[in-house]
Write a structure and sequence with these properties.
alpha+beta; 3-stranded antiparallel sheet; 28% helix; 26% strand; elongated
Length: 333
């Protein structure tokens, strides 16, 4: 063996799992520290700053864009460890993305079996600096963890791993959300959803007169909205159900501004939501008022465009929820 027994024990005892641990839905996932620094583990871990594997690679490419209500992250994983790939394929391990925003106290772990995946975060949940770490973690207790890809220090050794043990990691670049917010879609505070008392009117009511587009729901519907609003997978569905009709209504109201025989006009140009939409269109090289004057498209077409076709996203999200039924898809951390 290339290293002494004392060196092996130094590796094994240098870091206890209690300093960084993950637990699944029955006991919420938690991470005591965000970024992973170079350290010793009690077993081999694949990372760019470690030498436990001879040639294997764990590399994650990330891209992002901002939509009207969501910040969208796309991930593509390059994993060349045959043993880890086999564990993922057999359901013993999974890819996991941990995202944290200290300014809003947002922390969530997203886990996937595919090397290409997407994460959608409601814009109101993040601001300023966002930290992201990619992992491969175990999905259950593993007895006799072993790989022929390890360096000679671990030759012939086997390890028992607890559920949630880190097998590979990569610290991804921090994102500055506030910096890009004015370069992309409208600000998350464009909409405000609130509860209203029973006033004899049924269903959702919309108001444009303030700085935010106000969506009011009766108490039973508002309680249901609150339950679903914390579920990231349900965000595209909520957007299609609540935000899309609000934007259709908004475009209908603004269209009246350009009717030649319109009377009783209401000037919304001083509202913050109007200015935010102007900025959103301008950042994409388009003119908001020109869109309003376009009589060849309906208000529904315009609303779909500014939200980047939310019904398609909602249906895809419902399909994903159906496919994942009975299996954990994401957890609070």
């Amino acid at each position: 063996m290339g290293a002494s027994i004392s060196a092996i024990f130094s590796r094994a005892t240098a870091l206890s799992w209690s300093s960084l641990y993950w637990r699944r839905r029955s006991m919420p996932w938690r991470c005591t520290r965000m970024k992973i620094t170079k350290r010793l583990y009690a077993y081999p871990v694949l990372a760019a700053d470690k030498d436990d594997y001879r040639k294997a690679i764990f590399s994650v490419e990330m891209s992002e864009h901002m939509e009207l209500t969501d910040f969208v992250l796309h991930f593509s994983v390059q994993l060349t460890s045959e043993s880890l790939i086999r564990m993922i394929g057999q359901g013993e391990a999974e890819y996991l993305i941990h995202i944290e925003c200290s300014s809003t106290a947002f922390r969530k772990a997203y886990h996937f079996a595919s090397p290409q995946f997407e994460v959608r975060i409601p814009l109101e949940k993040i601001n300023h600096m966002v930290e992201i770490v990619a992992f491969v973690v175990t999905k259950k207790h593993i007895s006799g963890f072993h790989s022929e890809e390890w360096v000679d220090d671990f030759s012939g050794l086997r390890f028992d791993l607890e559920k949630g043990s880190i097998l590979a990691y990569q610290n991804l670049p921090n994102l500055s959300i506030a910096k890009s917010m004015h370069q992309s879609a409208a600000h998350p505070s464009l909409f405000y959803i609130r509860k209203r008392q029973d006033d004899g009117r049924q269903g959702m009511q919309l108001f444009l007169e303030g700085d935010k587009i106000l969506i009011s729901l009766l108490e039973p519907e508002y309680r249901l909205y609150q339950q679903f609003n914390n579920d990231t997978e349900m965000q595209p569905v909520l957007n299609a159900m609540l935000i899309l009709p609000a934007l259709v209504y908004m475009f209908e109201e603004l269209d009246q501004e350009y009717e030649e025989d319109a009377t009783d006009r209401h000037d919304y140009t001083g509202c913050a939501w109007y200015e935010a939409l102007e900025q959103s269109y301008r950042s994409r090289g388009k003119d908001f008022e020109e869109t309003l004057r376009d009589r060849n498209r309906t208000s529904f077409d315009k609303a779909q465009e500014v939200m980047e076709f939310p019904v398609v996203k909602a249906l895809a999200s419902l399909q994903a929820i159906r496919n994942d039924f009975g299996d954990d898809g994401e957890d609070d951390v």
